[in-house]
Amino acid sequence: MTEFGCLYSLSIILRREISIVNYFLDNTCTDRRRRPGCPPWRYSAAAAWGDRPLTLGTHVAFASVLYLGGATLFGYKPDWISWALAAVACLLPDIDLPPAKIGRLFWFVSVPLERRFGHRTLTHSALGLAMVALLAAPLGLLNPLYFWAVVGGYWSHLWLDMLNLRGVDLFWPSPLRVVTPGNRNWRLEVGSKGEMILLSALLVAATALVPLSQMGFRDGLQALLKNFDIAREQYQRVAGTD
């Protein structure tokens, strides 16, 4: 039941994530020129233009759904290490944004990255994904699942950011921007009711996928059909039609 404990912990930080969004808005130096006295890890040109990241909880929940859903469909056995790798990898693209959690932790990387390339460009592109895959390749020697967990977790971030108002420069350095859906009114705003609904739905889906990921889709379907056959036989005996 440890998987359920992980999902419960993720739901607990939901309320904290909402307050983090407010902190982000209140404490980021959002002038288009950095104000005197503003630390480099609190300045963000992206925030100045309203380009803010989705909350950490949403990204981790989405990566978890993809990880557990993949285990259900493709039959690999989920474990804590690969799940943790997917969860960490799904945060890596925001290393180009100083006010993001990972950006604050590695501000000496995030500040020059944003100043040189901007947010949602290099680290949110197919090129960035290929670079991460190359760096994660040695993990495949230990366990191929570790490699795919990193690549899948990283890709989940890009996929989810496509739902945001700005989208991502997936084909960077091309200026072509990828967004979905095409209607701007249906895209997610940071900390909005829509994002909170999505996060709640992802937590429910992840909880449902925990037992299914252990069985796999085929075994789960067989168990369901077997239970149906047993129920039908019992009904026939009671009805006297057997």
Walk me through this protein's architecture.
The protein is mainly alpha-helical and 242 residues long. The chain has 10 helices and no strands. The model is unreliable at 17-28, 30-36 and 40-51 (pLDDT under 50).
Layout of strands and helices, then pairs:
Blueprint: H1 2-27, H2 45-48, H3 56-74, H4 80-89, H5 101-105, H6 107-117, H7 126-142, H8 144-161, H9 193-215, H10 217-239
Helix pairs in contact: 1-3, 1-9, 3-4, 3-8, 3-9, 4-8, 7-8
Can I get a quick summary?
With 242 residues, this protein is mainly α.
Mean pLDDT: 77
Structural class: mainly alpha
What assembly state would you assign to the polypeptide chains in this entry? single chain
User: What is the tally of helical segments?
Assistant: 10
User: Helix coverage percent of residues?
Assistant: 55-70%
Poorly predicted sequence stretches spanning 5 or more consecutive residues: 17-28, 30-36, 40-51
Radius of gyration: 21 Å
Give the beta-strand count.
Answer: 0
Strand/helix succession: HHHHHHHHHH
Strand content: under 5%
Apparent shape: globular
Query: What's the end-to-end separation, in Å?
Result: 40 Å
Major sheet details: none
